[in-house]
Amino acid sequence: MKRARASLLLLLTCLACGTPQAEPPPPHEEHTTSQAMEPGDYWAAHAARFQQTELQRDIPIQRFQRLGAHNAHVSNAYSHAGRWYTRINQHRYVYNQLAMGMRALYVDVWDHGCFYDKDEPNDPYGNEQAKGLCFSHGAEPFSTPVNGILGEISTWLREPQNQNEVILIGIEDNEVTSDDSRKRLVNLLRHFLDQSYPNVPGDTRGSLIFTPQDLRTYFSNPWPMGPGTRAAGPYHPNRWPTNEELARMGKRVIISVKDRFNYASLPDGNGATLKDWVFSESSGHYQGGSAEPDVWTNAPGYPANAAKKFTGYPSCGSSDLSGALGLYWTEFSELRICDHNVYCSLPYSAFSDYLNYDTATKCGFSISMDQVETNLKYAPFDDYFSAMRSAIWSFGEDEPNSKVGDEDCAEFKGSTGQWNDLDCSTHRKRACRKVGATCDASYCPSDFWTVTSLAYPWAPQYNLCPDGYDFLPPQNGFENQKLYDRLGGVESAWINFSDRLAEGKWQYEGFQWWSEGEPNNYGNTEHCAVWQGLDGLNDIACSMTRAYACLKIGTTRETYAALPNPWIITDATGPWNTPQCPAGYEFAPPRNASTGYRLQELSYLSGKNAWVNLTDQFEEGRWEEAPYQPWAAGEPNNEFGNEHCVRTYANGTWNDEPCGFSIKHACRCTSQSCTLNDWKLSDTAGAWNKSTCGDGWTFSAPRNSAENEALKQKLQNTSVWVNLTDQAREGRWVHWGGAPVPYTRWASTEPNNYNGVEHCALMTANGTWYDSNCAESYAHACRKFGASCSATSCPADYWALGGAGNFDNPQCPSGYIYSTPKSDLENAALLTKTQGQFTWLKLIDRGHEGHWTTWD
Length: 856
Prior knowledge:
Blueprint: H1 8-12, H2 43-54, E1 67-69, E2 79-80, E3 83-84, E4 87-88, H3 94-99, E5 104-110, H4 126-130, E6 134-135, E7 144-145, H5 146-158, E8 167-175, H6 179-192, E9 209-210, H7 212-219, E10 220-224, E11 235-237, H8 243-249, E12 253-257, E13 279-280, H9 282-287, E14 331-333, E15 338-339, H10 357-362, E16 366-369, H11 388-391, E17 407-412, E18 419-423, E19 429-434, E20 449-451, E21 469-470, H12 477-486, E22 493-498, E23 528-532, E24 536-540, E25 547-552, E26 567-569, E27 585-587, H13 593-606, E28 610-615, E29 645-648, E30 654-657, E31 664-669, E32 679-681, E33 697-699, H14 705-715, E34 720-725, E35 758-763, E36 769-773, E37 778-784, E38 799-805, E39 816-818, H15 824-834, E40 839-844
Parallel strand pairs: 1-5, 1-16, 5-8, 8-12, 9-12, 12-13, 14-16, 19-22, 25-28, 31-34, 37-40
Antiparallel strand pairs: 2-3, 4-15, 5-6, 6-7, 10-11, 17-18, 17-22, 19-20, 19-21, 23-24, 23-28, 25-26, 25-27, 29-30, 29-34, 31-32, 31-33, 35-36, 35-40, 37-38, 37-39
């Protein structure tokens, strides 16, 4: 972390004799409810949680706008034997910083000059293994024990109300000088950051840590990179996971160090090295690192993040870099030094860089704060010192408050740009966000937001937004500011955020068309959703018998309106958890208003009520999908408390088993030549998380009974792992991982971002791709709605060319959409259509240089 000059200590020696202001002690194991802690009860703490945990739940973590604590350990809450930090960045315990909404903790670890001889008296590692490690702060005479603070973090992470929270721990380890110290540091992290902590001494499973290997295994393209790709390393990742995906995986801690290669020679005891447990910070990401130029493991962080380098809003840049910054681990940090009595004026101002939190928040950037405080009247951290007010871009101060009762829906107040809770029956215009578009300071479409011309009640089930838009909320400060600009600082509008399904549990609803008065969880037994004709959804007991609503696999926004209806309702009936969908269909809920209309039509005309794939069994009021699960009788039973991975047997039934068993894996074909229900078994056996499916295949799980039968035919009296686990939360079975990256066909020297302005993909006369300036004028590649290629050819009308224009203004013919090839076959078909004419492809890296995305 940033340090004041050593001479500052001379100015502080006279202050070391005072008594630091104290705060209540952090919770111990017997106090396990952070909501009872005062700092977590204030408006700012609740709003910080809404912004990060709910509104950004589906945002990839590299674009996430998080609130962090700079030098989280350097707090006057910590003292021992009359000693403390002489200059501080914080005044609360780390536990309370987390309770106040901090989702990034930045700390300095030292292995010399520590105040303690060992981490703490009850150190589970013993004196020799933990000796000399501490959290410290630039030549201070005081330090804090590693075990104490890691214990606070572990306690907070394991509390029931925090199971959807993901945190980043940024470690400055420049003062960890030996391999022995590095080994002890990572093993301590693995010990405390485990779901089973407090566990036995020496246990280093680290089950809560999301690792670089997890990124490669579950979110990377399984094919080796071809020529012309830019990223180093054996695999090119598809994407970073979202917060929700990490929470479902139970991988809720990301750790970065200065250079992970420093840990490369240290074995982790599992056949890998300690390098595989930590990411490298930003300096490695942008400069290649001293020994490991792997762009995808050298993050998170940003190299030019000092407050004095921030250029403000609307430029949203750094003085070290040209142009506005996108959202790729972009974070700015304040340095505000105070003494242990929290005196933050002279002489300390000469050593402080104050960050303009308000404008950094408007830019959508993550910020790490000094003197984190949610009680805005907490002396001496009154309104003048509070950063939290500026860091909250969503609800206005003391909102939501349900002031007149039944205020369950969020209104965007055009006069302030902040939100208010309001009665859902009130008429307001609706804020509609462009589907598939990204918006940040580096580029945001001018039509990212639109507003309906008429006012309506809040109800999200009606498709009132124009084509190409959905009723969606802002997800960061920049998007929120753009909506404020669109509304002209005057009129207000509904946004899709409410607590109408469970009081106090604010969430984006998506599409949930509930009957009047539902869901009501009558008798506390109704946790599964059924569709009832014209009325929509109702919650009933999951054990009741109904038919099943099955949606055609691959149904998209382009095809939901096509005939025939993409839904079927089965003749077979049963309880909610045994869906019986035919080949090519999956048990699903309506995911937007248009698919809801089609299911409503089918249910009404057929006279059938049908189960849909929505349940709140795992968290009351949070309705979510669950995967297909054909369990054997009496399964899953978590026998002996360690069965958290799924194995399918020769008869097609599933059983939960310990994840360490060595058997083969079920691999689904994901290459262009795949046929329906094409499965194989991995070549080698291994533990559940050690899949070896090979090129063009992905570790997967059947989505319906037909796919399960197809896999069964491959088993030949053996059993295999399928991609389903409840390691994160007992009984909540989820898949891990994502889909492959888009196909690319770059020329050998492309993309090169010539002159720093080439961010859009262009097909050239020979069929290879170049990056080019998005403002140039070319035709656009347009793919026919619903069309598909066979294994050997594409239809003659598969591609058409749109009119000439810049990248952002495609003029596709009726029945076609702006697109990009996804295979050599599709690329060749497009080349035939272009006849050598340069043509825009729907592929950009404006959000972050080198990170190409299709928007799809």
